Structure formats: C-alpha cells, structure tokens
Fold this sequence. Notes:
The structure holds two protein chains of two kinds. Among the domains of chain A are: 3-54, no CATH class; 120-148, no CATH class. Helix content of chain A is 60%, strand content 0%. Chain A is built from six helices and no strands. The longest helix of chain A has 37 residues, at 67-103. Chain A is elongated and about 140 Å long. Chain B has helices at 5-27, 32-47, 49-54, 58-77, 84-88, 97-107, 111-122, 127-134, 138-156, 159-162. Chains A and B meet through helix 1, helix 3 and helix 4 of A and helix 1, helix 2, helix 6, helix 7 and helix 9 of B.
Amino acid sequence: xxxxxxxxxLIDRGLGALAPDAVQLLDAYLREHPQEAASARDYSxxxxxxxxxxxxxxxxxxxxxxxxxxxxxxxxxxxWRRARAGLAVAASIVVGxxxxxxxxxxxxxxxxxxxxxxxxxxxxxxSNSSSxxxxxxxxxRSSPARSAGAPAGFTWTSTGRxxxxxxxx
Amino acid sequence: MTQIAPSxxxxxxxxxxxxxxxxxxxxxxxxxxxxxxxQETFVQAVRTPARMEAATSPRAWLFAIARNVGxxxxxxxxxxxxxxxxxxxxxxxxxxxxxxxxREAITALPDTLREALELRLGAELSYDEIASVLNIPVGTVRxxxxxxxxxxxxxxxxxxxxxx
Lengths: 169, 164
C-alpha cells in the first residue's frame, strides 16, 4: 500500500473517523504487514492520549438554563420591533401628507387679472401674422375700433342673422 | 417565539451544555466568562428557533454559535485565545504525566489545527460537522486534523528517537 495512503488511514482510524468495514480491512492488512503495525500503534496511542487530554471532564457543573436572560432578550427584541414598526408608520404618514400637500391645487395663489392674455394679444397684434387663427383676425373683427378700416357697405348689424352686403347699422 | 423554543433549547442545553462549556473554557473562558458565553450561546440560539429545529446537526449548529459568540467576546476584550493553564485545569485527581505532556503539545499546536482537533476529540463532532462549524471544506478539516496528529506524534516521540 502507498505509505501516504496508509498514514492517512491510520490517522483517520485513530481519530475514530474510519468506517467499521474499512477498519477491518486495515487490520487485515496490518496483520499481513507487521512492519507497519508499529506505526499504526504509534498513531493510535497519540490519538488516544489526545482524546484523553481533550475529553470533557466528568462532573461539569452547568449553570442554570438562562430562561430569564432569554425572556429579557426577547422583550428587548420585541420593543425594538415595535419601535421600528412605529417609526415605519410615522414615516409613511409624513410621506403621505407631504405627497398630498404637493398634489393639492393652489387656490387664491395666482390672481386672475386678465393681464397676461391682453399682453399676449397685444404682442401678437404687432406681429405680421395674418393667418386664419391669427390674433389680428380674431380681435380685428370683434373690435369696433379695428372695424373702422373694414370695407364700406359690409356691416354686421345683428348677431341673429348673417350679414348681408349693403347692410348698415 | 420563546413559547416554543425554550423547551427544545433546554433539552439541547442538557444534552450538549457540558461539551459546549468545556469547549468554551478551552478556547475563550476563564472562570465565569465561559459560563456567560454558554448562556449567551443559548440566548442567540433561541432567537432563531426555526433554524434550531431544522438544523441537521443541532450539536454542530450550537458549536458554531458558541464559536461566534466566543470570538465576538474575545474581539471585544481584545483577548488572546487559550492558555496552557486553561487546558491543564481539566486534569483528574491523579494526572497521567503522558496526558499532561499531550496537553502541552496540543497547546503548542497552531490555532487552526488545535481548534479542529478540539472539535473532533473534545466535542466529538464528525468531519462534516467540524466543516460546518468552521465554515471550511471537509477536505480542509481532514488535512488540518492529519497535520495536527502528525505534529503531536512528532512532539510526543521520545527525545532520543527524534535525534537524527
């Protein structure tokens, strides 16, 4: 047998980690090879002494089972869990209120004075745009001042009927 | 949580408490410190009752917790791990000089080898269980144990045999 393999087997046997059938085979091998038996005894003795040196001494007095300590630890853990849950709820409420406050429409914040539309219209009046949807067309037709330049003989006298050519107000 | 766990934990405490206390004394404890670590081990164990009940080897699982508890405490204390006297304390009424010599030889082993040996011969854990406690492969456990035994054999050999 390979000496390294034999050594591994002998150590495992000394440590009690060899399967019983493997132990039997090893013993049979050692009976046929007495020159290896001394080495086997050596490992066995070392392991046996180490086992005795490290054995759990008899009559060890165990302290009482730490029931109180476990209960105390559990109570502390529960307190932490509750505190964490409370903090989570509080944080959710704060975030919820924050989001709601941001989402609410602002009333009475921006006064409606008609300024911006007039300014926009005025700005657009100065432009050269005269397309169908231009401000010039829209304001020009509804304003009497602007209609001064309208062609003679075409006056819209009533909103109830369509203007006809030649009508006068 | 604690309604279910303590009864099972108490059973484990009765079954493995002595071995755990012995391990903690060897590795971390002096006096009451080891007892305190043992109690803390069970406080930690009860915190995860599902793992405790589902553990393949509750003994290995408890040793792993005990080891972590001990290491954490040692780190806090900035303490060194074992002393020869901690191992020697466990001698019987009429100590065998060969056993005393072996204790010294074990104390002189590198820490990684000694720990594996303590878990195998002191706590009687299997190679697989030691691997799970130390969080290392089984092959490494086997290698450490073999190295430890080889070194012990060398140290225990009579002086005249050691001479070339």
